[in-house]
Amino acid sequence: MRWENLTEGTAGPAALFGADAVVTRTFDTPEFRGITFHEVRARSIVNRVPGASRMPFEWTVNPYRGCSHACVYCFARKTHGYLDLDTGIGFDSQIVVKTNAPELLRRELGSPRWSGAHIAMGTNVDCYQRAEGRYRLMPGIIEALRDHANPFSILTKGTLILRDLPLLREAAELTEVGISVSVGFTDTPLWRTVEPGTPSPAARLGAVRTLTDAGIECGVLMAPVIPFLGDRPEQLRATVRAIAESGATSVTPLVLHLRPGAREWFTAWLGEHHPHLVERYERMYAGGSYAPTWYQRQITRQVHELAAEFGIGPSRRGGARRVVTPERPAAEAPAGATQLTLL
To answer: Buried b vs exposed e over 288-309: b needs ≥16 C-beta within 10 Å?
Structure first.
């Protein structure tokens, strides 16, 4: 593994942790069988979003690298290649854990140089993936943000977020807290093959209901809408209806995008499970990582019409924050789409 690219002694700011601080562990329990954890002592935890990014925030915290959710389309797969780890099965089963994330965040938030800007979490890999059940990094992270009254948002597919509901409520009394849950579809067979390590869509929407009933406004990022597999009108209707019934404050559709790293892994999955669709995908994504503008507009229009029918309005100031696709070309933004904002 190419730890030296990220360890002390590396020229420039790329050094993220010391090579002698890497501890590799495996746990012979059903929930962690087949997964290897690389525990590291990070040198920094608050990361600035690159200037070229179209994210509506400047700072992120990512306590993990790699994700046991094993979503075949995950755009973050390519980042595993920076460590010479496989972007396919390695991304799903080789998890880097920044064990000192809570204490490091508290120190960085207390620095005179820190401005108190919004911090987004779950924008790279899920901070409530399975590993969080063992390492419990998020309670300390939320406590640090709460104690500094620092605004933050979380995007997750993990129902484990409910464990931290009391902390989220405490933080929401002191600063702006936004929660979004990702549910792209409610089709059970599709979920089992494309997102095998995640809680079911029904369980995620149950978490939305619990959060909203507890006074924490929660939006749903309806992502990804998967062409030819999850985009039939009856599928979109069923998903938006379920989202509305969960009490979500907003719904934002996002069509599947396939970046390098994710594209190869998804294409291999498609060839195994739906070989008749490979050529259609090649045509649809011939122009790059994003589906054609006409298709994005079509999906956005359909979902917005359904949202209006079921009484889900656009997000309002102070409502649940939602996350846009990183580095999305402006020309490809769906016409008439709801603006994805942090506030």
So the answer is: ebbbbeebbbebbebbbebbee
Of 187, 179, 244, 257, nearest in space to 215 by CA: 179
The Cα 60–Cα 54 span in angstroms is: 14
Residue 206 main-chain phi, psi, to 5 deg = -65, -35
Q: Which residues of the chain have pLDDT under 50?
A: 1-15, 315-343
Measure the CA dihedral 234/320/74/3, to 10°: -170
Nearest partner of 38 among 74, 2, 76, judged by Cα: 2
Query: What does the pLDDT look like over 186-226, one tens digit per residue?
Result: 999 999 999 999 999 999 999 999 999 999 999 999 999 99
Angle at 177 between CA 176 and CA 183, to 5 degrees: 145
Cα-based distances in Å from 342 to 58, 152, 158, 203, 219:
11, 9, 20, 25, 11
Give the single-character DSSP code of 30.
G
DSSP string, 94-125: EEEEETTHHHHHHHHHTSTT-----EEESSSS
Phi, psi dihedral angles at 51 (to 5 degrees)? -60, -30
CA distances 292 to 62, 108, 324, 328, 339, Å, are 31, 42, 17, 13, 19
Task: Give per-residue pLDDT as tens, 157-183.
Answer: 999 999 999 999 999 999 999 999 999
Instruction: Look at residue 235 in the predicted model and tell me its pLDDT.
Output: 98
Residue with tokens 């419990």: 136
pLDDT over 90 percentage in the chain:
74
Alpha helices by DSSP H, listed for the chain, are: 89-93, 101-109, 132-135, 138-147, 165-172, 188-194, 201-213, 233-245, 262-273, 278-284, 293-310
Q: What angle do CA 130, 132, 135 make, to 5 degrees?
A: 125
Per-residue pLDDT, 27: 87
Q: Distance (Å, rounded) from C-alpha 59 to C-alpha 310? A: 34
